[in-house]
């Protein structure tokens, strides 16, 4: 028989869950987290410990010791980390939580409010740690659980913070849901059923996209490659799902990058993800790469002006304009070269010169994108500009015609 750890807060939902599992003969234990936020938490901790003792089952408790001001999410992360640690140490393969249909209605409303793509409520079962997390009460309403508790003369505790309107969920619970129930009495049941259907649809989509990834994506340890032709045949939801699967595999979010590069009209592109991770588009192939593996940007020579050149993902325009703004033409020796930064590059300033690397630091240019920044160099080897960042200083701007740079 599976060993089940039951998360028990002391509220009616978790007390009902525990009572049912015990009476159904499950091999269960209790886990309770004292958040250290309320005076009543001490009594609740003792109450839950005594409940476990009354059922003659193991009790695992922990008090969190955070400084004030931590977010609800931080407490949730700590709570579930404790559950996972207990499961690992004591050999429980399942965590059971008391989420119910009213919780799911609130979650769907939050998902709609946040405009998420996957509006599918709460999964009734999912992977957790080295085992799984189950929600046996998910298809029952809060009213049904309270009725069960009363019929079975169960005792529970009410958390006063559940009445506060500070958090979005509590605001929805106390301000929006009661009004919905007044005009739509079956809202809890119908939203629960709709969410179940949506989860099944998403499960099928993920399974289909997993097969697509295996068939069309060249998966490496720290990179992947996929032909753009294959990706373009996917719907937007399928591209999103593939992105989610690949993001989970490589632990870096590639979903938005895939969509941006697919929709871009440019033949090449680079999308910075985080740290040294990049998505690139080249030769009709999308690639996840790290900085050291990014394809080289070859120097481009410019013989005449005006001109427009493509340098990686950047479109660089070089034009001639009248006036004293820009690079004086009489200071320039042709041909010009657009290239990436080399070690030791220096730019002339009003007084002396300065390392390009130092300029980029002073300008707070992110380290990960510095290797792809374009420089403009003339035939004498002088760096005229770090394109899009800074232009070299010129003392004599008497020439009425100047070179102007634009980059997109």
- Estimate the global geometry from the Cα principal axes: elongated
Structural class determined from secondary elements = alpha+beta
- Determine the N-to-C terminus distance: 62 Å
Number of strands: 22
- Tell me the radius of gyration: 30 Å
Give me the side-by-side strand order of the main sheet: 3-2-1-4-6-5
Tally of helical segments: 11
Unreliable segments (pLDDT under 50, ≥5 consecutive)? none
Give average pLDDT, whole number.
90
Helix content: 25-40%
Describe this structure in words.
The protein has about 400 residues and is α+β, with helices and mostly antiparallel strands. β9 and β10 form a beta hairpin. α7 packs across α9 and α9 packs across α10. Helices cover about 35% and strands about 25% of the residues. The protein has a six-stranded mixed β-sheet with strand order 3-2-1-4-6-5, with helices on both faces.
In short:
The protein has helices at 12-23, 40-55, 72-90, 101-113, 142-151, 168-183, 187-216, 228-232, 236-250, 255-263, 356-362, and strands at 3-7, 27-34, 59-63, 94-96, 125-128, 131-134, 218-219, 224-227, 269-274, 277-282, 285-290, 300-302, 307-311, 314-322, 327-328, 336-339, 346-348, 353-355, 375-377, 383-386, 390-391, 401-407.
Write the layout of secondary structure elements.
Layout: E1 3-7, H1 12-23, E2 27-34, H2 40-55, E3 59-63, H3 72-90, E4 94-96, H4 101-113, E5 125-128, E6 131-134, H5 142-151, H6 168-183, H7 187-216, E7 218-219, E8 224-227, H8 228-232, H9 236-250, H10 255-263, E9 269-274, E10 277-282, E11 285-290, E12 300-302, E13 307-311, E14 314-322, E15 327-328, E16 336-339, E17 346-348, E18 353-355, H11 356-362, E19 375-377, E20 383-386, E21 390-391, E22 401-407
Parallel strand pairs: 1-2, 1-4, 2-3, 4-6
Antiparallel strand pairs: 5-6, 7-8, 8-11, 9-10, 10-11, 12-16, 13-14, 14-22, 15-22, 16-19, 17-18, 19-20, 20-21
